[in-house]
Every structure is written in C-alpha cells, then in structure tokens.
Design brief:
Layout (H helix, E strand, L loop, with lengths): L1 E8 L4 E11 L2 E5 L6 E7 L4 E7 L1 E7 L4 E8 L4 E13 L3 E10 L2 E12 L1
Antiparallel strand pairs: 1-2, 1-10, 2-3, 3-4, 4-5, 5-6, 6-7, 7-8, 8-9, 9-10
C-alpha cells in the first residue's frame, strides 16, 4: 500500500510525501520522509488514533476528537519535551484519515496542524 501524507501548520508550512506502508491489524506503519531514519506508526481505533514516530525523531500523541491528551517529542539533537494535544477534528475512514490538532505548552498554543493521510 502507498501512504500519502499531507500536513500544514498555522504558518502555512507544508509537509507532503508518499511512502510505502504496511498494515498489521489496526496499525499502519510507513517511513516518515520528512525526518531521517524515522518510522510513523498509527494505531487506528474507532474514535482515536495513537500516532508514534520512532527513530531519529520520536513522538507520541493520542488523538481523540474534542479531548485534551498528553504528547511527547524527542529528537537526536537533544530536544525533549512533553506537551498537551487538543484534537479539534478526527475523521477516520477506510482509506483516509483527517486530523486537526493544537500543541499546548504552559497553557499556551505553540502550534496547530492539519494532517491528511490517504491510503491506496
């Protein structure tokens, strides 16, 4: 399967790539071509997604619409922090996932993101 990944943040910065992916039950895994040596793993459930990046960049976020959850980020240069995630939109279809969320630190929004993932 091919995974088409599109992302845009509040500053209109875009990340777009497509990568060979594989599905194992309700988990989808593919290379993150925006970060070297990094794999994205999506655990897809009925009303939530757990997004993990593993490798040179590590991230873990639980995305549940209209809920605030915890997130984590770490990269190989030593940047390492926890944050809160507010998921504003989560639409899960058979071959498409739409996500909109904000990252919160110290009660302040530090960024917002829209992600579209298409599976073919």
């Amino acid at each position: 399967m091919v995974v088409y990944f599109y992302s845009i943040n509040q500053d209109k910065e875009k990340v777009c790539f497509h990568s060979e992916g594989k599905k194992d039950g309700n988990r989808i895994m593919f290379s993150d071509l925006s970060c070297e040596n990094t794999i994205i793993s999506l655990l897809v459930e009925k009303d939530k997604i757990v997004l993990k990046r593993e490798g040179d960049t590590e991230t873990e976020m639980e995305l549940i619409k209209d809920k605030t959850t915890k997130g984590y980020y770490k990269n190989k240069m030593g940047l390492d922090f926890f944050f809160k995630v507010i998921c504003k939109r989560l639409k899960i279809k058979k071959n498409r996932i739409d996500i909109e969320y904000s990252m919160i630190m110290d009660s302040e929004e530090i960024s917002s993101h829209k992600i579209w993932i298409i599976l073919r």
